Amino acid sequence: MLNSKNARNRFPLSGLLVLAFVVTAGCEPVPAPVSELPAVPAGIEMVDMDSGRFDWNTGVGGLIVNKPAPFTFLRSKDEPLVSAEFLAARPKPAPFDAETERKLANLMGSRAEPFFSQRPFFSAQGEIDLGTDAGAVSSFALSADGKYLLVVAKEVVVYEVESRQLKFRLGGVEGSVSHCLWPAGDTFYVADEKAIHRATVGTSESLQQVKTLSQPLATWQHAAKAPVIFGCYQDGKVFRLDTKENRFVDLKVTVGGKLKVLAVQPNGDGILCTADNGVTTFRFDNERLVNRQLTALNRDNQVVSLACWTSTSRLWSDGDNIYSLPSENAEESAKQPERSPRLLWKPLALIGKYDKEDNQNQITAVVRRKDIEGNLHLSVADVYHEDLTHSIPFDLQVENLKDVALDGRGLMVAQHLGNAIQIHRRGVWEFPNLARTRYIVATAFRTQNFDRIDQLAKFALAGEGYRWGLDAQEMFGIVQDTCAEVWLQVRQRWGETEDEAEKQKYAEFLSKAEKWAETSVVGMSSQLDMKIQFGWKARGDGLGYTVSQQGWKVLERELAEAAEMLDDWLKEDPYAPAIMYAHRMTIAMGRGESHSSVEEHLRVATALYPTHVSLHSAVAEWLAPKWSGSEGDSAGYLAAVMKHGDPEVAARQYARIVCNKLGHYTEPVGLVLHGHYDVRSAVLAAESMVSLEPAYDWHLVRLLALANSFEMRTQELILAKYMQAHFLYDPSRYGERYQQFMPALYENLPE
Q: Any signal peptide, and if so, which residues (predicted)?
């Protein structure tokens, strides 16, 4: 639970309102409107890559040569690739009954409409009118389970959140109550300048004094999984309150630093607090101090503003970074904290939780951020510290906002606006990286719930439109990719373990999975993907002469088996998902097959899936100079094949593939000078891409780099604004080469 009084003291929200006014008044640098930007200059002259013709113009060493296209069926976009009868016979996905569809939608993505929407869904629980005679609200808090709202003004008042009705009001406080805290259960605590009091919902008729205070309270926090509260006086001295035994002890511990920040270990055995030159961890055996560890800060004048403690980690923030140490550390003096890269958003409050499903520390944060136009936003988001992914932020009302509180789960948000408190319940909180979908599929595979995987795969294929920027075929690819990843892990463990019992267990698992793949399209596709990955891992990443004979042998065996299995499947089911045709192209590349050996497969695949990213990326990779082509072949193929698809979709998918290919070049200009890609068309598709809420931020980062390099200012602003709104930007995540292309993202960071 967020101690709202303490949070407000650390970060006055009135300051946010002033900041918003300053931005509006133009006292800070704000990007000029798009209409005032300089005109886009003429780009680098592009080689004619009209690959619908038989001869492809290919740049080699600065010369233009003519070379026959490897796939002659692309010579004209007007010639039909397959018969009309073949396309007409294409089976339609079988419909699901409404109940099954509802269950699968909840499992796989979200309950929001449309299914798999990335946008957060908050249901307003309503507004509680405090009345004009309520007096100034000194503190308020949500109960840990989100059932109640505690408001401290002239009186101590409790509201039931669901009904928004007054539960009861309490007297019994002589002084002005300044702090409130609501641990787990129905009992809450308040503090005035002289004492701590408590009351229980449904049984208390008045506040009961727990303990007199020797001086006013600065801050306090409770343990998430133990009946313990730690508090800090204004002079920094710390006390411990055992709420079960009603035992209060002043500890020989002091909190230092410019701000008094305190975090409590979930089991109540330790606290993390600020020190004059860092943070200090104190560990206790009940009230007895057993260990003290000082962790020095990394730079002068660094001020720790927030801290939280999960079941696995101690975390704190200075507003620019999040630092972490393990929760339990036998050699604490030697351990240095891990530091996240600089945060784009400035956190105002943190609630730390450990997500067992993803083995990560999840933080619910109230953050302030400014978009590329300089507008201030106050938002709530879930953040994974380890990789800086986060949920789509829910924007709070900034006008008249005085304070914010969260419940102990981070599912309820209360905001104080004038004489009212608005409460919102979080309904859907999805992550752009498809983590939830992958987790559900991986869990089903590990438990060998193959029927569920088949249902999820069919549901993905039956989808209309886009989910997280991905079409139905790509969503199917996410399902099979996840299965293949877990399958590969099991196969590797089977080969590595020397324990006979474990080896037998893995062997039985693999046998069941192979049996499933005989009749399941997602099972077969996953097995093929697994075999391709297994073969390449055995080969290694080095140049050919560095590969061992055994490595070559395993690769050749796995690819040969996969080719035979896949050819048999496609013969029986030419309408197989696009990812299976993509596997066939990857297999052909790895085996050094001729283009003609898979031309008929590619002809059918292009007719069915003219704009599928994985399929045509695989062919473009195969046509690269290091495999079977020359400079320009890949771009030529893409320009030709995309003509067979819907123009708007083709432009968007072409842009995604170009983003993928950018990784092969030291600078974006190499895409034009060497690869002969139509970079301008790719960048112009940026607006179409962001309208679909794309799943992968590195697509946008690379497009932003291209827009910056070719001075396409309109698209640069579109992309930068979207990036600020949806992703915690981490320069080190994308590589040094892209940092110079990101000035727009850093022009208007919150102060």
A: 1-25
